[in-house]
Amino acid sequence: MEKLVTIDIIGTGNVGTHLYRAFEGKADVNNVPSRTLDSLRTDSDIYLISVSDDAIRKVSGKVSDYLTHVCKSILDWKNDNAIIAHTSGTTPLSVISDLYPATGVFYPLQTFSKGVELNYSEIPLFIEGASADVAHRLTEVAKLITEKVYDADSEKRKTLHIASVFACNFANHLWALSEEFLAGSGLSFDMLRPLIMETCRKAGRISPYDGQTGPAVRHDMKTIQSHETALAANSDPELLEIYKLLTDSIIKRHSAK
Amino acid sequence: MEKLVTIDIIGTGNVGTHLYRAFEGKADVNNVPSRTLDSLRTDSDIYLISVSDDAIRKVSGKVSDYLTHVCKSILDWKNDNAIIAHTSGTTPLSVISDLYPATGVFYPLQTFSKGVELNYSEIPLFIEGASADVAHRLTEVAKLITEKVYDADSEKRKTLHIASVFACNFANHLWALSEEFLAGSGLSFDMLRPLIMETCRKAGRISPYDGQTGPAVRHDMKTIQSHETALAANSDPELLEIYKLLTDSIIKRHSAK
Question: Which end of chain A is more exposed for a tag (fewer CB within 10 A), N or C?
Fold first, then answer.
């Protein structure tokens, strides 16, 4: 039987908990609380630092110190091959690369909530390594849980993060605005949910550019004008501003067809 | 055996085709091309006008003329109880209410694509009638295909339509913008799809206000500043404008917590 790769996940928040679950049965995995580092193993192949962005450098430093100083002096530590990698999309590798010889990034692009089951094999994982060897080994480990493994340096992760702010955080905020707008007329967001779900399913199949619907893509200026008049009467001028900006943006992209 | 309600659906586009399918087996339903009105029945209980907004008045007028003049003179027509209703969210009832005694609106809030199967029982249907009797009878017919039947006058339908522009058309456009933004860095929209799908699933369960994530709701000004700097370097100034407007909108709504 092939020896399982040994992984210590430091951090017991959403990402740490889900990564632990994703690796269960596929690696010899151990979840370690970041405050105390209780139960940290000295002989792991990979140490994944799943803590808040602000704490990544500090916790990585503690793990590195533990491995390279404490272990080295007490146990004559020889695990020179171990990797320390953080799991953050927004933190550059440079934040930890001076702390330890073999560092990397192991970034799952997903929104994790406690108690929500996920199909890990569908989650894309983005890998960066301080060396080609680290990148290669992190890629092999990533392939244990998903087929969607990509190289992404800090610049590409930033681009992905910005795109996900538009695609997820901002889309969700538009849903919140529509919930707010409906509530003002005694209507419920539940009425919109089936339409939203179908819009999402469509974006799962085809390019959202090709799937665009609504008055703007039809250049239906009569409806747009009527909506703008209604929104101008709304107590919050921001809704009209957002309507105009996004309508213009759609018209601009769909006029040269 | 109870007699089935008889429905003629005029218009063979997306909405007409899907309404026909939704009623199959539940009503005596007939789908009629709007150009020729071939196969229009003189004895139906309901005539649903599913044509483009611009054609609603003209087609409704032709159906009304056929029923009240042609049929009356030739067949001594006595179907005084028949209803003519359009299926548009954006068209007021007043566009057809002067043409015929019993008019209404039968508006399914969903995005229909040919060839895409839908669970009709989840689609909300919004009803308006020129009289309480018409509204009541349209409601009974709507309940044949869905439990989600609501009263909505033209003003409420307009509010729903504006909300659905934000929730669906604009959300989809944000996905198109993120696809465009990723393409500029050689990244694929496929990488974002699992995250988008999970964001959608979350909005299907909880209030989008409560489910808001991202740098804006965390008031993470360092990340926001870094994204704005990156977007300022983008060739299209619109992306930065949208980022700023939606970020401000999120911060404003989540600061008073």
Answer: N
